[in-house]
Amino acid sequence: MRKIVSLLLSFGMIFALAACSQSAASEKQEQIQSAVQKTEEQEADVSTKTLVVYFSCTGTTKQLAEYAAEILGADLYEIVPEDLYTEADLAYYTNGRADQEQNDSNVRPAISGGVENMNEYNTIILGYPIWHGQAPRIISTFLESYDFSGKTIVPFCTSHSSGIGSSADNLHVLCADSTLWMEGRRFESGTSKEAMEEWLNHTDISN
Ligand SMILES: Cc1cc2nc3c(=O)[nH]c(=O)nc-3n(C[C@H](O)[C@H](O)[C@H](O)COP(=O)(O)O)c2cc1C
Fold this sequence. Notes:
two-stranded antiparallel sheet, 7 helices, 8 strands, about 45% helix, about 15% strand, elongated, binds flavin mononucleotide
């Protein structure tokens, strides 16, 4: 009889231990699931941020990029060349540095520094001056430096008189297929903040 009782007690303990470890395992599983859910929610939150990126040698594009960042409450990033452009570099039709770079679509001028948290941004407003009908080659360097898959890029440019033309299309092909390119716009020097705001409202950027 004593043997039977001790046998029953042993079985009872084994069942109790098994039940305990099962409930601990399911508790752990729930903890993991909730951590994954939180990370997904956090990622969804931050990926709605907008970054205004610009390159500007004489301040025209810079002013408009600053307006855009103020209007959208967005972060601002300036593309700064490792080798800054001098006045002589920018003198066009002199076969100077800028002319030579624009003559060769494979040139990629180096950028000093970079955007560390690009994954936080969902929308990029990209401003550049027109150089011989195209974006300066340093914009190609920028676009090839990050993965813009699934992100939206809204280009704008400034110029003396040329339109945005094929410049934005030629930049678009440097990005992943899943990058959404919005229609770009050319602005002249001295464009008002109100005009920039009107355009941004028109492009329906959700920030
Ligand atoms: C090398 C070079 C080439 C240029 N080519 C053109 C051009 O093809 N068409 C045009 O309208 N303006 C042209 N410009 C003028 C610039 O697009 C214009 O001044 C622009 O607003 C400058 O922007 P930023 O002040 O932000 O550098 C050129 C300027 C430079 C330096």
